[in-house]
Amino acid sequence: MAGNSFGSIFRITTFGESHGEAVGVVIDGCPSGLAIDMEQVQQDMDRRRPGQSHITTQRKETDRVEVLSGIFEGKTVGTPITLLVRNEDAKSKDYSHIKDKFRPSHADFTYQGKYGLRDYRGGGRSSARETVARVAAGGIAKQFLATLGVKVQGYVSTVGTIDLTVPYQDLDLSVAETNIVRCPHPESAEQMIAAIEAVRKAGDTLGGVVSCVITGTPVGLGEPVFDKLHADLAKAMMSINATKGFEYGSGFEGVRMKGSEHNDKFENQSGQIRTTTNHSGGIQGGISNGMDIYFRVAFKPVATIMQDQDSVNEQGDATTVQGKGRHDPCVVPRAVPIVEAMAALVLADHVLRDRTT
Amino acid sequence: MAGNSFGSIFRITTFGESHGEAVGVVIDGCPSGLAIDMEQVQQDMDRRRPGQSHITTQRKETDRVEVLSGIFEGKTVGTPITLLVRNEDAKSKDYSHIKDKFRPSHADFTYQGKYGLRDYRGGGRSSARETVARVAAGGIAKQFLATLGVKVQGYVSTVGTIDLTVPYQDLDLSVAETNIVRCPHPESAEQMIAAIEAVRKAGDTLGGVVSCVITGTPVGLGEPVFDKLHADLAKAMMSINATKGFEYGSGFEGVRMKGSEHNDKFENQSGQIRTTTNHSGGIQGGISNGMDIYFRVAFKPVATIMQDQDSVNEQGDATTVQGKGRHDPCVVPRAVPIVEAMAALVLADHVLRDRTT
Amino acid sequence: MAGNSFGSIFRITTFGESHGEAVGVVIDGCPSGLAIDMEQVQQDMDRRRPGQSHITTQRKETDRVEVLSGIFEGKTVGTPITLLVRNEDAKSKDYSHIKDKFRPSHADFTYQGKYGLRDYRGGGRSSARETVARVAAGGIAKQFLATLGVKVQGYVSTVGTIDLTVPYQDLDLSVAETNIVRCPHPESAEQMIAAIEAVRKAGDTLGGVVSCVITGTPVGLGEPVFDKLHADLAKAMMSINATKGFEYGSGFEGVRMKGSEHNDKFENQSGQIRTTTNHSGGIQGGISNGMDIYFRVAFKPVATIMQDQDSVNEQGDATTVQGKGRHDPCVVPRAVPIVEAMAALVLADHVLRDRTT
Amino acid sequence: MAGNSFGSIFRITTFGESHGEAVGVVIDGCPSGLAIDMEQVQQDMDRRRPGQSHITTQRKETDRVEVLSGIFEGKTVGTPITLLVRNEDAKSKDYSHIKDKFRPSHADFTYQGKYGLRDYRGGGRSSARETVARVAAGGIAKQFLATLGVKVQGYVSTVGTIDLTVPYQDLDLSVAETNIVRCPHPESAEQMIAAIEAVRKAGDTLGGVVSCVITGTPVGLGEPVFDKLHADLAKAMMSINATKGFEYGSGFEGVRMKGSEHNDKFENQSGQIRTTTNHSGGIQGGISNGMDIYFRVAFKPVATIMQDQDSVNEQGDATTVQGKGRHDPCVVPRAVPIVEAMAALVLADHVLRDRTT
User: pLDDT, tens digit, for every residue of C22-72?
Assistant: First the structure.
């Protein structure tokens, strides 16, 4: 129950520390006979990769995915698919200064408290480098979903105090990939980039929000009680490093509406039952209703700042944590493929679960 | 994988339809030798019970809990604890008018789509009556946590557009149980009650937010990757009927802060390492750090309104869903013990998980 | 992880102590829309019931199954099916003489060691009364399997030293239900009955073997590595009270053959690939090959004998455990429906698992 | 639910095909702070390794274990431990002659039926090469158990028709490792080796039995209903390639005893409650009682023989499977460390499970 697995039928187990030999993932339960294009998987890896633009960390990692098992002659064979990424640009020496110190709002203190020891290099297992494995696995899940017409697309909707308030229906989401902050609204994107540049110069960091839209979902995904589709999406998203909140459909704002305004009326659209509005976010009673699924995920400002901070060490003595290293001033541009990957994993799992109903 | 179980070691399985014979729960994995006070469990049941005040549904259900197994001479014996509540005031005839109609923003359409048939009486399994079982199980979890000094307390912080903005630290949370809306701020409580009364007269409904604070948590609960403590809390909360969002610690607002503002600095307080602020919400890297855990859960306005609504029937023909029956105009006052129960179940499970680390 | 659940998709959770209020089972994951005949379920209950003949215990329990949830208008609706049997003829006073003593080869000592306390009445949770719940759940699984043409049939093949050595292919298995010992070979049945009568008079007990044959299984059930079909059958059988061994196909005797004798050659029988022999017992590489599945389960002699036995009490002092009460002199006649139920549960689960491959 | 994981808290996931890049294992849930000696792990790998003697297959594989994660400065850190073994001497061309043929009593036919395609090279995932991963993981489990004084020791007790009938209590089990067949009785060992040599010359194969003894187990391991300690051992053993049966304690022979003979009487041995006999095999009611645990596992004769055999191909046409390649004439000598590994994994898991009771 150490929690390194996710999913029930389409199930992944990730492993690896930030500065260990490698990070990787075992995917169990992917249906057999699925054609896999590893170049597509690599593209998502590149969207997550450090050093991809001047507003991300400047660490250099190529993050090439190696297939260890489960794919034969370009197809899945029903056995576990293992994907491995070797760690390359790990400068463990960079971390000797915090070997016995607890960085504020990091996991150093809680790991030490839980395990009695820790691999302090680069945050060890608590590093967001673990998400390399998620994106790789998500790439396989996306290809499975694509065969069913399901598509997952994320984008940045908030950076710091700059919000994109245009609803997703009025945006061309493909624009998101045309700028380095991954915001589908060019004007907002420019402001977001400027905000990140400003904060980076100040040695500080920003938070943000990633929005995500899933189209093409059939009716019936999700289990009605504890494993509601949105409950599993919530868990998936909140398991990503640095997340602080999740909302779907009308979300927290929906609270302020009346029932008569919020209810989504059914109508027959050319033989298909659809709703006229979609405050439900594509999910009713925990089960997909065939409309678009959409949700938002809040990320806190990055905890590693380029400023000295007061803290304590393992002995409980006051100390200073120096601000140094190569880090992201804002994680949301690189978080987009991670959010997509986790969403794809949830959907793929529920597609398979629904086959047993 | 039909999703009627929750938790991994302290694990519950709930059963029962709204208008079936009974609803109940099997709790597996509760440690042996725990003294159980069933009257305390019943008190939480009464906080959830319909008809407890004039702002809730007027259905009459006593919801008395019967113990079928697992407790011998007042103590748990390590075997499954089964708690049963018979359904009493189920007026199935009240639902014959919607037998083949899909109520807007209910689960009728998605259940029919997923299963090909459904128990339409009172919403069947999709009814919030299922939460009877959660509150009963949560009552056991609370008593387990109490032996460790952990306490879970929820309250209503928003009804419709009325927000309680005072932080929980500045409130006496015990005040919540002194009014029928369960808000610890008397002035806000009055406004909330008035708002619910107004909307009920109009045959409409409101949404709201339940906040929850957990005190006394030791350092080390939560697993660092997928089963982060806040990820499991998010799933637990989002599995409750009618929820739309979850946030913990600084939440969505934390996005707008800079890292230098958001970071919680460590200090030595009389030999104990604590943080000076608590934007982390008591959880760092997915693991409890010993500070208070706090979070907020958004509930949509109740879907059942006392107004006629356009919809379609199973054949896809346009129809009208009549507004009738006995329903809550706003669920959050009764949702407080449900939120607490789910939080207690998550914590109890992670206490046991941590024992294997 | 307290182990009161079995199965992964078609999953049961049993509860209840021998002398508590009731024993029961929650079945999660049974497909929706399955027509259920509860009288058929009751028939299996009656085959397991105490007091059914003069060679079983004379306790009187009607073991009527009550449906609490999951079945509506005669069909499963996809929600948990809960079946309850109230305890009736529980004479708890009969057990006061062993309240603080450890009966030889019972679970008294190990329960006390594990949990620090125990419900000593009738063995509490360690009683074979728990299998009431398994037989009830197995009755539902059998009806699911019947829709696919899969049939499970058990019979007694050994009682004490009396062995039925005729292979199952040369027997009419339906004969088993025509005698009280459930042996399909009338001559052997008579000898077995006589042996049980003799041992009962002597206040002693016998062991035995239950054989089981599963016909109509499609190719492809079972998962190839840890959850091999025979591995799950082995676990299922060894989880039944008083079992000591499991073998399938050629079993322990197969060890003595050479590979050239043991290999099952494939041939094309009217367009269907079959094997000419079936030492594999219908399972190759953990996956069903479409041939009959057959296996054998060893049961030890009943531990409760009508003779005084030396033992120790909770304080570790020497004591005598008196031989009294109403117990079976040999469990295998009543174990037949239990073996069938567990086999049906394994098969039903693997049918659903295979749908996700 | 594809079944490539085993265990619930101390949980392994294995991956890799016989002729793929590598086989490996992720161990999740191993307690932190455990000192690991990888040379000890390698020793068990060498006991399983092909080519270790003239009575095993002559394939040459060094099977060196690489640590990818989870161990830092010689200790476990509570994160997943990943162990990898690259495939070396894989001669895939050796298998082109069976690319579209079904080898008798292999998994070719059932894999093809289940998945619609298969990696035919060396049996792919159905190859016993998968057990490389189990032995590596078992090596970690053994080191965890050693800290608690628990020791697992296997040996060969039957090869073909040659049985070692001396009870384990009368043997010096350490002798097993002094001969190539791993039988602790030198005279029997010689006969077994001769029998294997004879059958190999004839191009045929033999089956056998591996016995296993676990000492030092505390009272209380095992969960009382479905996850009885012997049920989990049964599943573990029956999940090993080529197994046909499992028995523990008195096993199938125990059936023939009377209750008065079979019952293990308790007595107080210098303050410790022990049984005077141990037909229970150290397990009562599914829970360890502190006595030695012992069990036996039957292995069928190896299916790959050096003789031509009739079969069919994927099209259902009659064909001949040629006898060629490098294979074991009898697997039991190499199966000993596999049996031990699986037993160690079961015990380690139940040690952790018991901590939550």
Answer: 999 999 999 999 999 999 999 999 999 998 999 888 777 889 999 999 999
At residue C188, the pLDDT reads 98
Say how many CB pairs under 8 Å bridge B and C. Answer: 159
Chains with ≥3 CB–CB distances under 8 Å to C: A, B, D
- What is the phi/psi pair of residue B353, to 5°? -60, -40
- DSSP secondary structure letter of residue C1: -
| Ordered alpha helix ranges (H), chain D | 38-48, 108-115, 131-146, 186-201, 229-238, 251-254, 259-262, 332-354
Contact by Cβ (8 Å): A7, A129: no
How many domains, chain B?
A: 1
E runs forming strands in C104-224: 151-159, 162-163, 208-215
Put simply, whether C16 touches D (Cβ < 8 Å) is no
CB-CB neighbors (< 8 A) of B23 in chain C: 69
Q: How many CB pairs under 8 A join A and B?
A: 370
> A78 contacts in C (CB within 8 Å)?
357
How far is it, in rounded angstroms, from Cα A95 to Cα A72? Answer: 41
Residue D110 near chain A (CB below 8 Å): no
d(CA C213, CA C155): 9
Which residues of chain B does C6 touch, with a Cβ-Cβ cutoff of 8 Å? none
* pLDDT of B104 strictly over 90: yes
Residue C9 touches chain B, beta carbons under 8 Å:
yes
Q: Which domain holds residue A54?
A: 5-355
- Listed in sequence order, the residues at least 6 apart from B225 whose beta carbon sits closer than 8 Å to its beta carbon are A3, A4, A14, A125, A130, A239, B286
What is the CATH number for A263? 3.60.150.10
In the DSSP assignment, the letter for residue C92 is: G
Phi, psi at residue A123, to the nearest 5°?
85, -5
HSE at residue B307, side-chain half, CA atoms within 13 A, is 20
Instruction: Write the pLDDT tens digit of every residue in A55-79.
Output: 888 777 889 999 999 999 999 999 9
- Residue located via tokens 């019972």: C106
- Backbone φ and ψ of C250, nearest 5°: -65, -20
Per residue in A232-270, pLDDT (tens digit) is 999 999 999 999 999 999 999 999 999 999 999 999 999
Name every chain A residue with its beta carbon within 8 A of the beta carbon of D72.
17, 20, 117, 119, 124
Question: DSSP characters for C23-46?
Answer: EEEEEE-PPTT-B--HHHHHHHHH
- Token couple for D124: 């792919």
Contact predicate B150/B217, CB 8 Å: yes
Residue D236: which residues within 8 A CB-CB, separation 6 or more? C231, D6, D342, D343, D345, D346
With beta carbons under 8 A apart, name residues in chain B contacting C77.
Answer: 17, 115, 117-119, 124-125
CA-based nearest residue in chain C for residue D352: C1
Task: Tell me, yes or no, if D167 comes closer than 8 A to chain C by beta carbon.
Answer: no
Nearest to B24 among C66, C82, C114 (CB): C82
Q: Tell if the CB–CB gap between B29 and C2 is shorter than 8 Å.
A: yes
B240-259 residues touching A, CB cutoff 8 A: 241, 243-252, 254-259
pTM (global) more than 0.90: yes
B353 at D interface, C-beta within 8 A: yes
The pLDDT tens digits of the residues spanning C182-210 come to 999 999 999 999 999 999 999 999 999 99
Contact B141, B9 (CB under 8 A): no
Residues of chain B contacting residue C13, judged by C-beta atoms under 8 Å apart: 5, 13, 26, 28, 80
Average pLDDT over residues B90-96: 69
- Give the residue with greater pLDDT, A1 vs A72: A72
Q: For residue D70, give both structure tokens.
A: 């989870």
- Asked if the Cβ–Cβ distance from A116 to D72 is below 8 Å, we say no
- The ipTM value here is 0.97
Confidence bin at A90 (pLDDT 50/70/90)? low
